[in-house]
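lol ok so funny story. i was supposed to be doing the assay writeup but got distracted and ended up predicting the structure for this chain instead. priorities right. anyway since i did it might as well share w the group, maybe its usefull for someone
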Amino acid sequence: MGNDISIRKAEGNWVVRAGGAVLGETQNALELTEGDLPPVIYFPRDDIAMAFLDKSEKVTHCPKKGDATHYSIVTKSTTLENAGWSYESPLTNVDRIKDHLAFYKSDKLAVERV
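and the output, tada:
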């Protein structure tokens, strides 16, 4: 694909959980691999409970993927600031991740194959 990025369909069923709630579950996740970095799972936006996500002011830039909009996750017990991101207008070489979200794994947020 160029730019040492590859995107493929992630095998199996994937779930993202935060604050005891399932935020999303899909069989249509994408796995993005970039160089030697660990793979990142991208969930289709349609498979995420967007009511739990608030768009934040944070925007970051990746020269290989474009500008990433960040989202905070609001649960009953906590707000996880900038816990997820989306390339809403990705560069052409990674346009498959458009309309997908990825999440930063932590002790309060899990991204798992189930």
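The beta strands are 5-9, 14-18, 21-26, 30-34, 40-44, 53-62, 66-74, 79-86, 100-103, 109-113. The mean pLDDT is 94.
back to the writeup now i swear
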